[in-house]
Amino acid sequence: MTTAPHLDTATFRALGHALVDRVADYLDGVGDLPVAPSVRPGDLTAALPAQAPETGEPWEAILADVDRLIVPGLLHWQSPRFFGYFPANASGPAILGELLSAGLGVQGMLWATSPACTELETVVLDWLGRALGLPARFLSTGEGGGVIQGTASEAVLVAILAARDRALRSGARLDQLVVFASTEAHSSVTKGARIAGLGHGVRLVGVDGALAMDADALRAAVEAERAAGRVPCFVCATVGTTSSTAIDPVAAIGAVAQAAGMWLHVDGAFAGSAAICPEQRHLLDGVERADSVCVNPHKWLLTNFDCSALWLADRRPVVDALAITPEYLRHATSERGAVIDYRDWQVPLGRRFRALKLWFVLRHYGVEGLRAHVRDGLAQAVWVEAAVRADPRFELAAPRTSALVCFRLVDDDPERGDARNQALLAALNASGALYLSHTRLPARDAAGALTGPPRHTLRLALGGARTSLADVQAAWSVIAANAG
Ligand SMILES: *Cc1c(COP(=O)(O)O)cnc(C)c1O
Prior knowledge:
Blueprint: H1 9-29, H2 43-47, H3 59-70, H4 92-104, H5 115-131, E1 145-149, H6 152-169, E2 177-182, H7 187-195, E3 202-205, H8 215-227, E4 231-238, H9 250-260, E5 263-267, E6 292-295, H10 297-300, E7 308-312, H11 316-322, H12 332-335, H13 355-390, E8 394-396, E9 404-409, H14 414-431, E10 437-444, E11 450-461, H15 469-482
Parallel strand pairs: 2-3, 2-4, 4-5, 5-6
Antiparallel strand pairs: 1-7, 6-7, 8-9, 9-11, 10-11
Helix pairs in contact: 4-13, 5-13, 6-7, 6-11, 8-9, 13-15
């Protein structure tokens, strides 16, 4: 007998059933709640005691506080009218996978610490890699293979660490190393470089009128760095930038990377998921030149956060950079090299059994089901794009390449335009009827050339797990009614 007051099995079972009911009710009803909360900073903190309870409390009290204190303080990412940032798909199969993973409670750091945890991850990432049309070199059947990271930010950090290690082993000094991305790349590239001790070497390359990296500018920048005695070691090509889902020219960037001996990482965190549809495969053109590629099932492929898929063309540089084996982690199967130990493919040691939820999702929906979900989001984006074009008060702020529409009120005066667009966004989000986020994108002329400094822009991201075209149309009516 333990002395801790554990939940007895019968109570756990009853509470668990009731909690699943609660989650189902939440997801059924989330569309009826105001999407954004109306709380002020410190509201929750003030409502909670300063200390943990000394003795346990009844579950009725805990759950009542969820209703009273927690739910009103949420931004409802699962609302069908949540269009901010990028979606964070939560689906029934994935939620059940999370629950089972929590219940099994295993640590998958080594193959030996739960063989099924490691092998299922390898298999489902091969499944997903094939479904996305990735070249065979990214599959575990060759030198490469896939691994689930917590986030795309960790995925790019792992890629930078491998690139750095490879360059250092070939004789470069840390202070010589340079990493490239476009000015529109996700901030995680700069953050990863800083963490890797390469903050001094980050170079952000300019973009063209479509906000995609200018590969000629990259080539020139690489040559300039080499002429100055520095060592280009890494470039990130983004397939679907966060601001506007611009698609960098991966093949052209890959040619520069290959000529310079740089590691090419493809960040397809959001838009890369669309490659699951054969008609969207072109998004990943050029990926055959990449050393690593990342897609986030936790955005658009119906898999709860966290689940970021990273595929490597060759796993050795990552393992070379990250494997350290103290005595307490030695294991005969690992020594023989017969198995994958995923701790060597990531920054932390411990790891959750995240493959379970992805396996549930792939088996429940099938690849066809995921394609249908992606196509819904794309069709909704096409509808919004047409609505923007049809309304002379608005302009598209960037070409629509995927399930994100960037738009703003037209205004001759940039400052007044920014103020009006900010006010529109604030009014929409305060209405509770929908939720959008923003970015800043340059003005463009009719030919698509960039003509001015960045302007306040509204982002409407599709791909929510529960969003129908009718939800999108209702949301657009609210936007149009507030446009003044
Ligand atoms: C969302 C996003 C990221 C960051 O994703 P996390 O998984 O939250 O780290 C990185 N890159 C791109 C292009 C993104 O859209």
